């Protein structure tokens, strides 16, 4: 099974999750600026919520790599919204990419809100989540 981890972050919150997932599944986590070199069965895709949506670079990554993605497993951070799943699911559908129902989301620190998040507990949880997805 081939696996890749890609993410977009402004604050570093989602990068923390991506690095933990990458370590758990044995691949290097890369930003969405790095295209997929070959087709993958599972793409762990991380994003954050900015102005109630995902960044345009995530949209571009999916459009540019749609023929190389078997299915997306979503992970995300946000200070307010519960997840990016619905936004990513719409983008996946528009690009003909399958979307796994499994997802991981946790709070991310933003200004004075959720200080220290994601924390060690969140990183442990996302590691277990990734291992479960690939088992």
Protein architecture, described:
The protein is α/β, with parallel strands linked by helices. Helix content is 36%, strand content 27%. It is built from four helices and five strands. The protein has a five-stranded parallel sheet with strand order 2-1-3-4-5, with helices on both faces. Strand 1, helix 1 and strand 2 form a beta-alpha-beta unit. Helix 1 packs across helix 4. It is globular and about 40 Å long. The protein starts with a strand and ends with a helix. 39% of the residues are buried.
Quick tags:
135 residues, alpha/beta, five-stranded parallel β-sheet, 5 strands, 36% helix, globular
Largest sheet composition: 5 strands, parallel
Helix content: 25-40%
Number of strands: 5
User: Could you spell the SSE succession in H and E letters?
Assistant: EHEEHEHEH
Calculate the terminal CA-CA distance, rounded to whole Å: 10 Å
Helix run count: 4
Main sheet strand line-up: 2-1-3-4-5
| Global geometry | globular
- Structural class of the secondary elements? alpha/beta
Strand content: 25-35%
Poorly predicted regions: none
Rg (CA only): 13 Å
* Mean pLDDT over all positions: 91
